[in-house]
Amino acid sequence: MGTESSGPLTGLKVLEVAQFAVGPLPALILADFGADVVKVEPPGGDGFRVWPPQVDQGDGAQYGLNYAVLNRNKRSVVLDLKNEGDRSRFLSLCAKADVLIENSRPGAMDRLGLGFTHVRKAQPKIVYCSVSGYGHQGLRGARTRLPTLPRGSSGRNTHSVRPGPSADDHTASGVR
């Protein structure tokens, strides 16, 4: 896990098991300050890879601009964390990491045998950051979330960029 980087966090090793924005953003900030961030993606990649707007990467294949922005300065590896061999490889990466950032559904990493207590056995000093849209407990604790859901459920809409209704407007009005 070593890349040539400079900045105040040079030497910090970060594993990111996160998709879309809420997990990749803090990892991006660490990478921008020099940390060596390795993004662990599932087979098929982060869902943000296909999120619009998309551009041609030069060979006819498309990728999402949002993905590119949120994952700059990172390396990536594909691991199927439902596969025992890949879970073992993941724990080997954890043993060399200082920080783990994950944004899986609450309890998912525990069910895979990759929750804090398991990872801590591989790396006792790891800082384990578990990011959840609604928290890990409470009425909505187990719910999956994308950025539009809290805005819609609160009636807040900040992302309309053109005239007419946005996806947020439909979520806020109860259209599902």
Termini Cα gap: 42 Å
Mean pLDDT: 82
Strands side by side in the biggest sheet: 5-2-1-6-7
- Give me the number of helical elements: 7
SS-derived structural category = alpha/beta
Q: Outline the low-pLDDT stretches.
A: 166-176
Give the percentage of residues in beta strands.
Answer: 15-25%
Map the helices and strands:
Blueprint: E1 13-17, H1 24-32, E2 36-41, E3 54-56, E4 62-64, H2 65-70, E5 74-78, H3 84-95, E6 99-102, H4 108-111, H5 116-122, E7 127-130, H6 148-154, H7 167-172
Parallel strand pairs: 1-2, 1-6, 2-5, 6-7
Antiparallel strand pairs: 3-4
Key descriptive features of the protein:
2 domains; 7 helices; five-stranded parallel sheet; alpha/beta; Rossmann fold; 176 residues; two-stranded antiparallel ribbon; 7 strands; 17% strand
Structure description:
A five-stranded parallel β-sheet has the order 5-2-1-6-7, sandwiched between helices. It has a two-stranded antiparallel sheet with strand order 3-4. By secondary structure, the chain is of the alpha/beta class. Residues 166-176 have low confidence and may be disordered. The radius of gyration is 18 Å and the shape is globular. The chain folds into two domains: 13-144, Rossmann fold; 146-176, no CATH class. The longest helix has 12 residues, at 84-95. It has helices at 24-32, 65-70, 84-95, 108-111, 116-122, 148-154, 167-172; strands at 13-17, 36-41, 54-56, 62-64, 74-78, 99-102, 127-130. Helix 1 links the parallel strand 1 (13-17) and strand 2 (36-41).
